[in-house]
Amino acid sequence: MNEVAGPAAERIADLTWAMTALGALVFVVFCAAFAYALARRRSDEPPTPERDRHGTRAIVLFGALIPALILVPLFVWTVQALAALDPRAARPDLVIEVVGKQWWWEVRYRDADPRKVFMAANELHVPVGRRVELRLASTDVNHSFWVPALQGKTDNIPGRENVTWIEASAPGVYGGQCAEYCGTQHANMRLLVIAEPPVEWERWAARQRQPAAEPPDSMARAGRDAFLGSACALCHA
Q1: Rounded to a whole number, what is the distance in angstroms from the first to the last CA of the chain?
Q2: Are residues 121 and 67 part of one domain?
Q3: Residues 72, 100: one domain?
Q4: Which of 98, 105, 150, 186 is most enclosed, with most CB atoms within 10 A?
Q5: Parallel, antiparallel, or unpaired: how do β-strands 123-127 and 190-196 relate?
Q6: pLDDT of 141
Q7: Strand 190-196's sheet: what is its strand order?
């Protein structure tokens, strides 16, 4: 399993491992009971009320009581996990729009002050320990935002805004991937989430808000114009 680096991914991982372990236990018990039933010599004795009562108790025990003891706690645990993963459960510290496009990610950092809004591509920089709300959309086909170390999958759908959240517990670089087939370059539609201490993130954001530097010479300006005037700029940033 991928590294778990945030509270959302931790909840998903804990529930997944618990369901896997319980499923394996139930499978082993079922196989043992089935093998016992096959190996047991069939009795030629006629049925009696006492034997019927034993059979009824076994059906109630193994068909209702034990499954209830397993499924009810799992149901409660699942509901609690879903409530904790709800993006409305807490107020975010930062809001980022992530727009899926064939075959790259447009990232817009929102702010109450329009002068502080800026854009990036294929990378999300987030401050460690801060809850980041992600507003997901698409301009062409269905995509799916997925960073396994931080959160489960959430779809980017044209004409609709889905909301999820991430929070990194420690600094690091966490890989993400479009998780829904979106065309010939789907496998290359990757992204990085770069988590850094809040002070460093503030410095990075301040640099991103500065105007882009002008090319220093005519050759660099010609390269910029060629890049912006071609189809390369549709995918590369």
Answers
A1: 31
A2: no
A3: no
A4: 150
A5: parallel
A6: 93
A7: 123-127, 190-196, 172-178, 143-147, 151-156
